[in-house]
Model the fold of this input.
Amino acid sequence: MGSIHALGYVVLRGLRGMGQAPLVQMLAIATMAVCMLLLGLVVLVWTNAQGVVQAWGIDVPVTVYLADGADDEAVDRLAERIVALPEVETVEGISPKMAMARLADGLGGDQGLLEGIDASVLPASLELQLALGTPADFAAALADRLEESEVVDEVAVAGDWVGKVSTMLDTLQLLAVGAGILVSLACMAIVWSTIRLGVYARRAEIQILRLVGGTSSFVSGPFVVEGMIQGASGAAVALGLLYLGFDALRPFLESGLSLVFAAGSLEFFSPLGVGVGIAFGAAIGIAGSRAAVARYVEA
Amino acid sequence: MGSIHALGYVVLRGLRGMGQAPLVQMLAIATMAVCMLLLGLVVLVWTNAQGVVQAWGIDVPVTVYLADGADDEAVDRLAERIVALPEVETVEGISPKMAMARLADGLGGDQGLLEGIDASVLPASLELQLALGTPADFAAALADRLEESEVVDEVAVAGDWVGKVSTMLDTLQLLAVGAGILVSLACMAIVWSTIRLGVYARRAEIQILRLVGGTSSFVSGPFVVEGMIQGASGAAVALGLLYLGFDALRPFLESGLSLVFAAGSLEFFSPLGVGVGIAFGAAIGIAGSRAAVARYVEA
Amino acid sequence: MATLEFADVTMTYGSGSTRRRALLDVSFVLDRGAFAVLSGPSGAGKSTLLKLILAMERPESGSIRVAGRDIQRLRKASIPYLRRNVGSIFQDFKLLLEATPLENVALSLQILGMRHREAQARARRALERVEISPDTRRATRCLSGGEQQRVAIARALAGEPAVLLADEPTGNLDPRLTKEILELLAEVRLRGTTVLLATHDPQVMSWADCTDFLRLQGGKLMEHRKTLDGVAAPRASDEQAGPVLMGAVA
Amino acid sequence: MATLEFADVTMTYGSGSTRRRALLDVSFVLDRGAFAVLSGPSGAGKSTLLKLILAMERPESGSIRVAGRDIQRLRKASIPYLRRNVGSIFQDFKLLLEATPLENVALSLQILGMRHREAQARARRALERVEISPDTRRATRCLSGGEQQRVAIARALAGEPAVLLADEPTGNLDPRLTKEILELLAEVRLRGTTVLLATHDPQVMSWADCTDFLRLQGGKLMEHRKTLDGVAAPRASDEQAGPVLMGAVA
Ligand SMILES: Nc1ncnc2c1ncn2[C@@H]1O[C@H](COP(=O)(O)OP(=O)(O)OP(=O)(O)O)[C@@H](O)[C@H]1O
Ligand SMILES: Nc1ncnc2c1ncn2[C@@H]1O[C@H](COP(=O)(O)OP(=O)(O)OP(=O)(O)O)[C@@H](O)[C@H]1O
Ligand SMILES: [Mg+2]
Ligand SMILES: [Mg+2]
Done:
């Protein structure tokens, strides 16, 4: 058989095989879609969490409270020395007024609490932003050195809860990666078992085609095509559902997140990411069907 | 056949059928487990979210800031009048010191901000807790009435963001219920398709047993037993995994949540809930296998 | 006493373009203990006639009575009980290919209501009668064609049914075994079972010690000859003469 | 010229308690265009011998040459090409039951490399030769036993293979069709195909116009008789005499 001829036949037969049992196909695709949805959700949450953590992790990590009545020139010199450090990205001076505004902002609408408080009771400060990837202990060491300066009253290293949340998010990231790997494996197992049951149900057909001289690729071809289509469709359906869900939830999630974090913009996968996802589904389908069919094609 | 006899046979044969293709069984159970895990996760998040919202929704919804130098007796009378309202559950007087301590607590370790601020700059207040289920507009109406009083400076009704978060959580709950229903349906479809493929693969066996005089319950019995065991095992595995995951994540989640909400204790399902979950899995398995086998038993 | 009674039975398969009449106005009566040979060329409707008795298919019109009961009137739930009284050897065997021969036979006996131990013992005897070792632990799939056919025969005989349907039961057996099986069927008949044997093998027809000889052709019953406990050898020309139009699939 | 050559072939199925010797030291040679009848009682090893030629099973020892090539030396990937030269009619037909008869035959021709249109035309001719209408849209599952067997025959013949294996090809056919099929096989043989026909039906043996007569019993080749283009009728006693120990499954 001419190989183009054969390929056409294999694809056609795969499609026809699917058409013969549309319900089973739909169920297989739905199974895939559920798994892929799970997987997609994990990946989406993880990428967004990473974004949030990055946007937020470098936000005000070190605040240098200046002593009352500190010399402006001395403060400027200190700021210059600090900004010269390679680990420090920016230094910003915060006046008591700005601090007050920020505090009011942090308390949301509950402004009654601050009524009657004069901004001057709040100290002036310098806010340092450290470069991404600066080790956590650098900030502590820097704080110790800065506190020796006369113009510095106290150095706050991103507070206690910031550190806690940061570790928590790191751990969550790790757990998400672990869960992602487990879910991928589970997905592949499910896809494989779905296809395998389908192949098992048609093992007689496979044996017959082998006995009349079909090569193993000819015989397994239609199943591989079927698996590929199932995988790609499952992934597409999953991504579609995920997008719909994401779109519906985004406003709520963003406003919810903005309460906790400075960064608040959530992103769906890029078109490239969507393409990769569908290709991944197709690849799982191909791998699953090849593995499933191998056993019966051998016999 | 004696019916006890028959039952024994049916159960035995179901078990043996499973033993003959352990890999397929394991995969079916894994499929179930993944679905159930998804479902369990939704239910768990939902129940906990509900708990959090309840614990937090009734926390400080109305704060009555008292006028500077308000008469203690007048304040007491006001408090008595307020507590007499059926919608109000408790009234608590908050002194400026207590308010300061709470503010400091709210800012976490970042205490530098408040250094040098005298507690007396903060106003005294009454905190009202409304009864569960009090309509949102009651608080606003109450605030208007209270502001007429001379001893009251201002009434803060649970702030702006609190309302936003509350609606968001309500919407999330709705979405979670919707997602839960969808996921349950998807689970049932997957379970049904898994069992159905298994039944399809053994349709010849079913036909043969029917032809030698097996009743439909005799013939479908082993499949139903199989489905039940698959469903129950899937649910058990899912609950086990869910518990492990929950246990590992709880500390992080609780500390994370405590940043946003006052309530911070998360609960796993009760033993009864676990039992219901496993029974639910078994029921899905039975329903799925009955539906799957029906078609071939009829023929 | 009539055990098996067909009255004007017509049967059509499928619908539309795949519609195909398989039996037309077939009527006959077989007594208790009869041994009937049902002959006819390929596609004549022999298997269809047997399937109707098992309620595997429904007739379009006419009535079929098995042991006095009209099987069209049977509720769905009663069909298994009908089948327990009708042993069948199918043309394609219909064995559980993954089970052993012993399991195949014993399971069908357990379905009849027998206890495990008794079913095992009876199944062993039935297998031995057709020269299949009951001790083999091989799956039935791993037996030769003729061996599988013998397992199917053993299963049908073991239950001592009121009616025994045998569809080409010796197509895969050599002459010696064929003769032995036919003797077994004759024995069963003497115990009161009504035997209906479908075949197109003239050798089988001549060896079978039958009481009734039925000949189908193109779905019509062309002949029903009673042979007083004698041998109803077909005239060879019956089978081979003339164009057999229904032999081709339309 | 030898098309088929067995040299000291021994074949054992299974292992341990299910171990079973099916063939022992079988040797024979068949020339191009030979028409060999392979006889033997049920369980003698006939189907096993045919399966070895198709590389469906591997011999324990000995060598098998098909058209000059040692099939044990064949790489796995070459087995399909071997099978394309060997047409087979299986004892259990091995048809695609959900496909139509025409699809069954045409698909096997497409596997041989034929274009769709040519395959269809050839498949039609092959089906007509065995009196099956190529236009039926019924699934093969909906044909009678004998009709299915004829579809299997059509499939094997349509490819005009170098070797044709026929395992009890007329077990479900009436005498008229049996004769016609045997005539078809004789015709095929005259075109150079080597035909190997396994049967235990004395009638088929006597009708087959064979050049070689082989007799298996208990896995051993008891007889290989060349009959100079004559009829190799078996002595009836060959088949029926004596205890046939291997007939029982161990
Ligand atoms: N897959 C298998 N596994 C184990 N034993 C087998 C297998 N197939 C056949 N046998 C055994 O090998 C022996 C020869 O079998 P084979 O199928 O070759 O017989 P045969 O001559 O074709 O018989 P029949 O005329 O009944 O079809 C038999 O005893 C059979 O039980
Ligand atoms: N399920 C079916 N659907 C449609 N037509 C069928 C079906 N089964 C049988 N037929 C047709 O009905 C006719 C009678 O079939 P039946 O199987 O009764 O023949 P038979 O006498 O047993 O033949 P054979 O000797 O070949 O087994 C045949 O023409 C066949 O093609
Ligand atoms: Mg038939
Ligand atoms: Mg054989």
Remarks:
- Residues 61-157 of chain A form a domain with the Alpha-Beta Plaits fold (CATH 3.30.70.3040).
- The CA atoms of residues 83 and 91 of chain A lie 6 Å apart.
